[in-house]
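can u do me a favor
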């Protein structure tokens, strides 16, 4: 007789649910032949992901006893670790900021009042049909760099100042300012996401991730003007990842602030070779010119 092949039941991580909701999810997962692993707060998320290695997750963000920024960080960690195999429970009273963030990660939403009817087919699709949508990232190009601008006639050197950068990808522009702290080694980054074709408030509650080489450093969301801010220690291999719309992310490579300062002191105010980058006359100029010459 052929040997029977035993299949390991799928493991689903349940995070932050109300007890009644949790009981319903447990019964449903048992009926589906899944194992249920429970995390009661955001701080347990990373440890459970590493220890239990779940196949999917169900997240109830409204009932997590944590600040919004920690909930956002947990959502980011789980979504990337499980490659989008995450179901987010929603309620009628959920605010638009939360829903905008969930949409940016292209995660399926299940209303709590329709849990028993909708969660099963949703999880079944993620677990067995492999239809989870992965994030699509687009590399934004630099179109303005203040460190590549020529000095005024007669000026041999310049004091270190804020570093202004402008990135572009399609119809979206990201304006950044990196300001060295005078009382520490930290850097303040202030940014704004703009779509020139859409006047008025835009890109409210877009998730912005300051990403290190191996893991996120800080996470924020934009305000009603598309603005965001970070305060961090400079280092190599830093970039920003911005969810500008559903399943559409921008990736912006950040310069090494310490390296940029060193080059300015050496009289070489260039992060890239002249001619390798298209530079505009100003942050929002529409008349490009090549290289760093006037």
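np, heres the sequence
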């Amino acid at each position: 007789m052929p040997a029977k092949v035993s299949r390991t039941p799928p493991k689903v991580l349940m995070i932050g649910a109300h007890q009644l909701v949790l009981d319903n999810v447990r019964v449903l997962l048992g009926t589906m032949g899944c194992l249920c692993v429970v995390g009661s707060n955001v701080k347990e998320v990373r440890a459970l992901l590493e220890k239990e290695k779940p196949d999917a997750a169900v997240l109830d963000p409204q009932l997590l006893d944590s600040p919004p920024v920690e909930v956002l960080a947990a959502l980011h960690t789980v979504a990337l670790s499980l490659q989008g195999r995450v179901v987010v429970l929603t309620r009628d009273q959920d605010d638009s900021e939360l829903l905008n963030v969930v949409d940016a990660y292209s995660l399926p939403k299940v209303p709590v009042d329709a849990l028993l009817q909708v969660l099963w087919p949703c999880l079944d699709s993620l677990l067995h049909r492999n239809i989870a949508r992965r994030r699509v990232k687009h590399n934004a190009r630099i179109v303005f760099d203040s460190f590549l601008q020529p000095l005024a006639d007669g000026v041999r050197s310049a004091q270190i100042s804020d570093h202004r950068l402008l990135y572009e990808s399609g119809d979206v522009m990201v304006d950044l300012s990196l300001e060295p702290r005078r009382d520490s080694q930290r850097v303040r980054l202030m940014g704004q996401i703009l779509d020139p074709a859409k006047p008025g408030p835009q890109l409210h509650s877009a998730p912005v991730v300051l990403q290190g080489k191996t893991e996120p450093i800080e996470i924020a969301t934009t305000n009603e003007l598309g603005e965001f801010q970070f305060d961090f220690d400079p280092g190599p291999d830093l970039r920003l990842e911005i969810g500008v719309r559903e399943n559409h992310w921008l990736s912006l490579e950040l310069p090494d602030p310490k390296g940029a300062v060193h080059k300015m002191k050496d009289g070489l105010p260039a992060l890239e070779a002249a001619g390798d980058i298209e530079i505009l006359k100003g942050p929002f100029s529409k008349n490009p010119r090549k290289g760093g010459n006037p």
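Helices lie at 19-32, 45-52, 68-81, 96-104, 115-128, 257-265. hope that helps!!
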